[in-house]
Amino acid sequence: MLQKNSDLEKSSLMKHFPKHWQTSQNNNYRLEGLIIDRVISNVFKAGMVITVIDGEEFTDCRRSKDRAEIEAECFATDETIFRLHDAEDHSKYRGFVHFIHGNGGHVIHDYSANVRLDRIIDPVLDFAATKGW
């Protein structure tokens, strides 16, 4: 179980999350950032781009490989949805990942059930499990 902020080292890759997230002392909130950071990395490695929906509407971040742009749109509301497309052919929709914030290690609420996304999400869920979830 998480007890110290040192358990949640701040990744240099997460520096673009909104200020209210960066200054939070809430370990569950910090863990969510680590999990989302890993999802973004795995999506990029799988050759996909991300469109961000902030829980209410599409953001200006559409079919992006720009980590800073994607992270800046996370945590704007109580949920974030990533729509995933092939990086080479944006017309190829690959699925979604739905995050509900405030759930700590259970921030991944739902995702498309397919082999591609299982390869992205399973290692992230394994990581969350090592943090006591």
Can you describe this structure?
The protein is α+β, with helices and mostly antiparallel strands. It has one domain. It contains four helices and four strands. A four-stranded antiparallel sheet has the order 1-2-3-4, with helices on one face. The longest helix has 19 residues. The radius of gyration is 14 Å and the shape is globular. The N terminus is likely disordered.
Gist of the model:
The chain is α+β, with helices and mostly antiparallel strands. It has helices spanning 19-22, 27-45, 67-73, 115-130, and strands at residues 48-53, 79-86, 93-100, 108-111. The model is unreliable at 1-10 (pLDDT under 50).
What are the key terms here?
single chain; 133 residues; alpha+beta; 4-stranded antiparallel β-sheet; 4 helices; 4 strands; 35% helix; 20% strand
Mean pLDDT: 84
The H-and-E topology, N to C, reads as: HHEHEEEH
Helix fraction by DSSP (H/I, runs of at least 4): 25-40%
How does the helix and strand content classify structurally? alpha+beta
Sheet of most strands: 4 strands, antiparallel
So how many helices?
4
The order of strands across the largest sheet is 1-2-3-4
What is the global morphology? globular
Q: What is the percentage of strand-forming residues?
A: 15-25%
